[in-house]
Amino acid sequence: MKKIVALALSSSFALASAASEGIPTDVTEAAEELLRAGMTDRVGFQVVEDLTTEVGPRLGGSEAEARARVWAEAKLRSLGFENVRTETFSMPYWERAYEYAAIEHPFPQELLVTALGNSVGTPEGGVRGQVVEFETLTDLINAPLDNSLEGKIVFVNEGMVRTQDGSGYGVAVRKRSGAANEGAKRGAIAALIRSVGTDSHRFPHTGGMRYEEGVTKIPTAALSAPDADQLERALNRSPVTVSLDLAVRTLDKVTSGNVIGEIPGQTDEIVVIGGHLDSWDLGTGAVDDGAGIGITTGAAKLIMEHINTTGEKPLRTIRLVYWGSEEVGLLGARAYAQQHKDELGKHVMAAESDFGAGRIWKMDTRFGDDKVELGVDIIRVLDAAGVALGNNQATGGPDVTPLRALGVPVVTLRQNGWDYFDLHHTADDTIDKIDPDDLAQNVAVYAAFTWMAANTPGGFRADPAAVGTE
Ligand SMILES: [Zn+2]
Fold this sequence. Notes:
Blueprint: H1 2-8, H2 11-19, H3 25-38, H4 43-54, H5 63-79, E1 82-105, E2 109-111, E3 113-115, E4 127-134, H6 137-142, E5 153-156, H7 168-172, H8 174-185, E6 190-194, E7 220-223, H9 225-237, E8 241-263, E9 270-276, H10 286-310, E10 317-323, H11 331-339, E11 347-352, E12 360-366, H12 373-382, E13 388-389, H13 401-405, E14 410-415, H14 420-423, H15 436-455, H16 464-467
Parallel strand pairs: 4-5, 5-6, 6-7, 9-10, 9-11, 12-13
Antiparallel strand pairs: 1-2, 1-8, 3-7, 4-8, 8-10, 12-14
Helix pairs in contact: 3-10, 3-12, 3-15, 4-10, 10-15
The site of zinc ion has 5 residues, from helix 10.
């Protein structure tokens, strides 16, 4: 906290906080210009196309993710970013090798499944057992803790509610770990779930799961929505036996990394924007999270062009971060917070784009209580792009949650996620799903927002004097 207090002594901070006089007009005017220019941006989309074409799928810790880092450094240099570097970290590695499921009896036929990230494999030759269906994870949790599932395959058939803000995900995703953990506690030999998703296509959705300490690790996989329906129909007719065969490969220690590029500012303060570079292995990671990489890179590039034409250098350094290994447990996010712990007091703002490429419609903030009015000033500019002001409880995006927990102000520029969970973590997550105009609106909003974050005197933390704490 001492460093923050020291910064508070600068005269601009004192002025801004005393009268809460908001964002200077020259800053909002430049932001308005960036917003206008961003609406026709194509740099952001080009970055997504390049990443998803030249690298493709890039699972955290894989050789493909390593190639993505090489690609990223080259891309950032070619776009003119400074201080381009990779900050590495170690992690355990998991990848799928083989997956197969089928109804064996009484209606023999294959079912489309995908292993959930971190699942153990089945014993050689697979497992077979009678399926016991639970409509929801809560039903399974409420089932008696006895051996009633001994030798059985548990099937959690819970659906997910489609919403614009993705709020259905929080509930639905619990079964991804919960089915295996709760099934194993009752003797199950494997766990199947209906994919965590909102589509009706025959693409199973993968995603990370975690075993509870002390609980037997049973193999677990997701059925595509129509395959879950099919299994449900079979179960409505008769007891059903299913076979499941999963093989996975793991390594104790591999290297991953965060790739960074910067636009230097006049002070040592920092505004962080970015997305995550890794993806799941099934698709090419266009909406998750090639889009976030493209949006924030396009925005920063636009700001760079503004600087080049006006000679107007931002107050703070704009740091673009491509986090590594997000999908497999926010490993890059944790590594960044650890490796930068000594300069977190100088992090004025952080925001990650990680919800596809739908248009931004709302901005949630997480500012100091005496700084929430700055959100109103920002929205006066973003309003022209159709963005409204939300609450002051923003998460900032998955990779900035560790920064938020350490006191860094964040915003979430909330995107329309109506279709996001149709594609999320499936083989269908490819660039044809991205509308370049929608992506450009994101670039515009990020550029305008980032410029204001980088140039608002005093920043966005609570004024220590105002709240009476150090
Ligand atoms: Zn993501």
